């Protein structure tokens, strides 16, 4: 344990092509708020998520770990525990089950601007919302007097295409408010943390998958439309297909149980009908991600751990 | 808070049969008294005391400070607040970013752990931090209602910073809603000194410098107060949900949904807390209920604030 170089980032040794999420089984459902697919920069339909890559068993000294890449976002998560609670708390220890502690850290180089080492309120609220989304999936009542530590390191949060020279030119759009970006970082955080929990062999009801949806207002008409898993460009320009960004929702879903474990909505998202439509599309998207990516990552991780040859590569 | 099996069963059955231990139905609220303007040294203040025992005092102080460039540099901006205003480079940097041309709101909540004896002191502290983040986030957002642009003094370097300091004086459940009501009341009561800005361009260097003057006696109201949303928190207990819960009901609830409702009666921020999960259909039902309660709360708040305004006008006469 002591020989591990903690300053090194234990990223993947090699890169792997992301799995395509589209297949013939999952035909897109047409809806009133359907948008012309060409309106999205990367040619996705409005209810398609970006290709994502996930794998488990990244950090050899942790009980469980996972890594996820969605677009430009790269997140690594390590889970330690369950272990005994060492600090004495005044009430509830004997009655309550275990507890989880989430820690989200943004690497100083994760954004366009360097961020200090000090934790700020955004990281705190990310961690809190993450804990809220994960807790329903865990059977904490079975783990009395114990704690599970979830550590998340966000290695990259924004697309790194703005170079030092281009910031001075007038054509470059102002960077979006960092808070908007951070709230949309929550969905991959949820997915990767749940994967790491599963990798650690912790008893769970279901894995939790996160999904975000951006809500836009049409500039010509006064109606709203939504886009699942908005990308960096879509967030930055905030005006797409004749729409203006009005808000976003992040949903944590337990796909097999069909229940929502986390929900954060910001902005003037219109009436309940539109919002619920967007939330339901997120639920469907999460089920797809769960079927295609999460299950595959867990099975691959299991095989890698059980076969001695490939298992050694992750222990380096 | 540890609840015995019998207590939990009693509460759940009561909620299921639409009669709670204090005689209310699921959607009945306890009466709340709103008094604003009690603290003379603050720019604005408000005290909300609910019949259930929750009492919150909010004092607002406005100060000249620096705008937050992005959330990540907010801490640096605080440090730089004392920088001289006529720094022309700072002023020029600002032009593109909307965040530089607006004021900001900072919220802090203080609660003595002794007020909530059923909770762990550290948990009380965490709760206060969470609530202050929720309030800060809503008030600083576009959907928060406040006209933050009007709080800008010199773009990029100087703006009004509104410090919302809340003090929890009593706890009887439903803390977040009460805190936000009190914050809303206090912001309605807030007066900001008038500021005059003079712009001058130096002939030799071409740099523009700003000088501003804060009036001692002239004040103006905070713009956009009436558009600040209200927060309605729904507590799911068993298969039903209640509003304005008692501490016991809060402890029995597994899902809490805080919904901010704007003046149009539409949700503008939602946050789920609690250890349970929820079905999408029930989520829609809860948001619908929150909308209905939000509209009532808006009406009640408007009336209460109007009463305070009339009273303070009579006092000054």
Structural commentary:
The complex is a heterodimer of chains A (316) and B (317). Chain A is built from five helices and ten strands. Chain A is of the alpha+beta class and 316 residues long. Chain B has one domain (11-310): GHMP Kinase, N-terminal domain (Ribosomal Protein S5, domain 2). Chain B is elongated, with a radius of gyration of 22 Å. In chain B, 46% of the residues are buried. Chain B: Belongs to the RNase PH family. Chain B: InterPro entries: ExoRNase_PH_dom1 (IPR001247), ExoRNase_PH_dom2 (IPR015847), ExoRNase_PH_dom2_sf (IPR036345), Exosome_comp_Rrp42_subfam (IPR050590), PNPase/RNase_PH_dom_sf (IPR027408), Ribosomal_Su5_D2-typ_SF (IPR020568). Chain B: GO terms for molecular function: mRNA 3'-UTR AU-rich region binding.
Task: List the topology elements.
The complex is a heterodimer of chains A (316) and B (317).
Chain A: E1 52-56, E2 64-70, E3 73-84, E4 99-106, H1 121-134, E5 146-156, H2 178-199, E6 209-218, E7 224-228, H3 232-237, E8 239-240, E9 243-254, E10 259-267, H4 272-306, H5 308-314
Parallel strand pairs in A: 4-5
Antiparallel strand pairs in A: 1-2, 2-3, 3-5, 6-7, 6-9, 8-9, 9-10
Chain B: H1 5-16, E1 32-36, E2 44-50, E3 55-65, H2 74-79, H3 88-93, E4 104-111, H4 121-140, E5 152-154, E6 158-170, H5 175-189, E7 191-201, E8 208-221, E9 230-237, E10 240-243, H6 247-252, E11 255-261, E12 267-273, H7 280-316
Parallel strand pairs in B: 4-6
Antiparallel strand pairs in B: 1-2, 2-3, 3-6, 5-6, 7-8, 9-10, 9-11, 11-12
Subcellular location (chain B): Cytoplasm; Nucleus, Nucleolus
GO molecular function (chain B): mRNA 3'-UTR AU-rich region binding
Organism (chain B): Chytriomyces confervae
């Amino acid at each position: 344990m002591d020989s591990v170089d903690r300053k090194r980032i234990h990223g993947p040794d090699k890169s792997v092509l992301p799995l395509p999420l589209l297949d013939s089984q999952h035909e897109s459902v047409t809806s009133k708020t359907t948008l012309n697919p060409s309106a999205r920069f990367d040619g996705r339909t409005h209810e398609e998520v970006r290709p994502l890559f996930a794998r488990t068993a990244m950090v050899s000294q942790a009980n469980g770990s996972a890594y996820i890449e969605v677009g430009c976002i790269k997140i690594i998560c390590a889970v330690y525990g369950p272990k005994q609670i060492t600090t004495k708390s005044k009430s509830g220890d004997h009655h309550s089950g275990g507890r989880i502690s989430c820690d989200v850290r943004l690497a100083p180089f994760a954004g366009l601007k360097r961020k200090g080492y000090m934790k700020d309120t955004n990281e705190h609220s990310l961690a809190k919302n993450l804990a809220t989304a994960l807790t329903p999936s865990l059977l904490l009542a079975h783990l009395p007097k114990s704690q599970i530590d979830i550590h998340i390191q966000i290695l990259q949060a924004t697309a790194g295409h703005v170079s030092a020279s281009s910031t001075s030119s007038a054509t470059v759009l102002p960077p979006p408010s960092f808070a908007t970006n951070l709230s949309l970082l929550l969905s991959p955080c949820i997915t990767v943390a749940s994967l790491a929990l599963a990798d650690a062999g912790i008893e769970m009801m279901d894995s939790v998958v996160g999904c975000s949806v951006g809500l836009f207002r049409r500039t010509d008409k006064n109606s709203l439309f939504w886009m699942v898993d908005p990308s960096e460009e879509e967030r930055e320009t905030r005006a797409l297909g004749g729409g203006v960004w009005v808000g976003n929702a992040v949903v944590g879903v337990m796909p097999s149980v069909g229940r929502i474990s986390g929900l954060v909505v910001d902005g003037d998202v219109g009436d309940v009908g539109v919002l619920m439509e967007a939330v339901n599309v997120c639920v469907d998207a999460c089920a797809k991600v769960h079927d295609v990516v999460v299950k595959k990552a867990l099975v691959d991780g299991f095989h890698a751990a059980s076969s001695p040859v490939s298992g050694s590569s992750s222990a380096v | 808070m540890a609840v015995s099996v019998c207590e939990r069963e009693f509460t759940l059955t009561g909620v299921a049969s639409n009669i709670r231990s204090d005689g209310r139905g699921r959607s009945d609220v306890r009466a709340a008294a709103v008094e604003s303007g009690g603290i003379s040294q603050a720019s604005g203040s408000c005290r909300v005391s609910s019949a259930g025992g929750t009492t919150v005092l909010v004092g607002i102080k406005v100060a000249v400070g620096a705008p937050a460039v992005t959330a990540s540099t907010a801490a640096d901006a605080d440090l730089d607040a004392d920088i001289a205003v006529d720094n022309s480079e700072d002023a020029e940097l600002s032009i593109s970013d909307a965040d530089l041309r607006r004021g900001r709101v900072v919220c802090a909540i203080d609660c003595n752990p002794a007020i909530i004896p059923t909770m762990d002191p550290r948990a009380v502290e965490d709760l206060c931090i969470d609530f202050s983040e929720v309030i800060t986030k809503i008030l600083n957002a576009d959907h928060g209602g406040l006209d933050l642009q009007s709080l800008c003094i010199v773009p990029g370097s100087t703006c009004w910073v509104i410090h919302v300091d809340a003090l929890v004086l009593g706890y009887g459940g439903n803390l977040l809603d009460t805190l936000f009501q009190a914050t809303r009341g206090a912001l309605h009561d807030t007066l900001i000194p008038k500021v005059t800005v003079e712009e001058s361009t130096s002939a030799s260097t071409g740099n523009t410098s700003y000088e501003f003057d804060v009036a001692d006696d002239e004040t103006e109201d905070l713009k956009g107060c009436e558009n600040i949303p209200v927060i309605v928190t729904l507590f799911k207990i068993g298969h039903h949900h209640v509003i304005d819960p008692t501490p016991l009901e809060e402890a029995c609830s597994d899902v809490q949904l805080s919904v901010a409702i704007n003046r149009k009666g539409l949700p503008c921020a939602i946050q789920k807390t609690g250890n349970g999960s929820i079905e999408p259909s029930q989520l829609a039902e809860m948001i619908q209920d929150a909308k209905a309660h939000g509209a009532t709360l808006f009406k009640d708040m408007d009336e209460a604030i109007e009463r305070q305004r009339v009273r303070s006008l009579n006092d000054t006469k």
